[in-house]
Design a protein that fits this description.
The chain has one domain (29-305). Helices cover 23% and strands 34% of the residues. The chain has helices spanning 2-27, 36-40, 44-50, 54-63, 120-125, 182-187, 251-260; strands at 31-35, 65-66, 70-73, 76-85, 88-97, 103-107, 111-114, 131-134, 145-147, 150-153, 162-167, 172-176, 190-195, 199-202, 205-206, 223-230, 233-239, 265-269, 277-279, 282-283, 301-305. A nine-stranded antiparallel β-sheet has the order 2-3-4-5-17-16-18-14-15, covered by helices on one side. The chain has a five-stranded antiparallel β-sheet with strand order 6-21-8-19-20. A three-stranded antiparallel β-sheet has the order 12-11-13. It is globular. The termini are far apart.
């Protein structure tokens, strides 16, 4: 009997230790898969996206017209507007670009990996960007990951997973992972592929219904979305939520709102406490996880303009 008790105790300790390690490995321990700077030496696309010319930066700063809610310079036009609809505060960045490559992405600490996170504002500071929203938090889920023309993950989440593709010409398209491989998307010219979803608007039509929600999420939440109105004309949208001043949006309400902005394509990115918009070094919205504390959540990636 004593031997059995001793074995049960040892087994219980081992099981507890294994469970604790699994939880830490899944949610806490950082794991570096690839440093983007290293990929740049092998991939011309990344080289072109990361080069810096000091003289050009100085010229841009001299000619840029910047206010608290607008930016005009170097073929980039940004206007920030605030709406109050559905008992929710919604922030909209209306964006016009001469060059679609000015819509770019960045990883926390310039590193592709697991549990490597930083705030949206801090990640933006490592770029030349002027405007950013949180991305899809790729490290918390399976799915295709293509960023700035580089394939990082081709592991499919599931066949009906809806991803957003941004092609080299700046066109946005919602695809299903079961219909095409990540390598095929890359070969066809995909510059960015996000795996969160769902698609909100496709071909100008709302693609969700009032019962659609992200798995395990409440119906009304802080939200982050990106959409395209026409060639090189985009919107980034972030809503507050979970507070007395702003209840948050359902997916259908978000889709309706994106339609009212004129979007032909729109896609839902990571929301909840992750939802953040940063413009010219300032956090525009009020990020919160539970409504009690207004604070940025650390995320794995951002979408930015600049």
């Amino acid at each position: 009997m004593k031997a059995n008790k001793r074995f049960s105790l040892i087994y219980g300790i081992f099981l507890l230790a294994f469970t604790l390690f699994t939880v830490l490995e899944t949610f806490v321990i950082p794991q570096t898969y690839q440093v983007v700077a290293e990929a740049a030496t092998e991939t011309e696309v990344v080289e072109q996206a990361e080069y810096v010319v000091e003289d050009e930066d100085e010229t841009a700063s001299e000619t840029a017209q910047i206010t608290d809610t607008s930016y005009e310079a170097d073929g980039i036009s940004i206007k920030i507007s605030t709406y109050y609809e559905y008992d929710t505060v919604i922030y909209v960045a209306d964006i016009l670009l001469d060059d679609p490559s000015n819509l770019s992405t960045a990883f926390a600490y310039n590193t592709y990996g697991k549990n490597i996170t930083d705030t949206t504002s801090s990640i933006l500071e490592t770029t030349s960007g002027i405007l950013a929203i949180n991305g899809d938090y790729y490290s918390a889920r399976r799915g295709y990951v293509i960023r700035n023309g580089v394939l990082y993950s081709e592991s499919s989440a599931e066949s009906d997973q809806e991803d957003l593709v941004i092609w080299a010409d700046g066109t946005m398209e919602v695809i299903k992972e079961g219909d095409v491989t990540a390598k095929e998307l890359l070969e066809q010219g995909a510059q960015q592929v996000f795996c969160f979803g769902p698609g909100l608007i496709e071909n100008g039509e709302i693609a969700v219904d009032e019962n659609d929600e992200v798995s395990k999420s409440m119906s009304s939440n802080p939200r982050t979305a990106i959409g395209q109105i026409s060639d090189n004309h985009y919107v980034m949208v972030v809503s507050d939520g979970r507070t007395d001043e702003s209840r948050g949006l359902s997916l259908y309400e978000l889709a309706e709102f994106m339609t009212s902005l004129g979007c032909e394509t729109a896609y839902n990115l990571d929301g909840g406490g992750s939802s953040t918009m940063v413009f010219n070094g300032t956090v525009i919205n009020k990020p919160t996880t539970n409504g009690h504390h207004i604070k940025e959540r650390s995320v794995s990636d951002i979408v930015y303009i600049g």
